[in-house]
Amino acid sequence: xxxxxxxxxxxxxxxxxxxxxxxxxxxxxxxxxxxxxxxxxxxxxxxxxxxxxxxxxxxxxxxxxxxxxxxxxxxxxxxxxxxxxxxxxxxxxxxxxxxxxxxxxxxxxxxxxxxxxxxxxxxxxxx
Length: 127
Hints:
The protein is about 40% helix and about 20% strand. It is of the alpha+beta class. Among the domains are: about 35 residues; about 50 residues.
């Protein structure tokens, strides 16, 4: 049956096909892809314009190779001349570490105690 309907097509003298005998099929009202295919030069010019504008603005973008980042850190240095390191650890460093670690958002508390000096670093979460 389908073969018979295909054979019924009448070929007109200028090699065009008479589609009047074929059943009517609904055509889409609007199709972006059909429009892009029909107007291929306009589509190409639009794509080329977007590429040129993109290249223009990518060179105007300001990129910093070493941006200024401030890390959330509290550093504490104490001078305690004449205090032995073992006494400084028990009397000064441990109470300060416990107090600093009780604050919100603490990731790391690092301390270094030497004779005559104490250094405590409190590193917080980076938001």
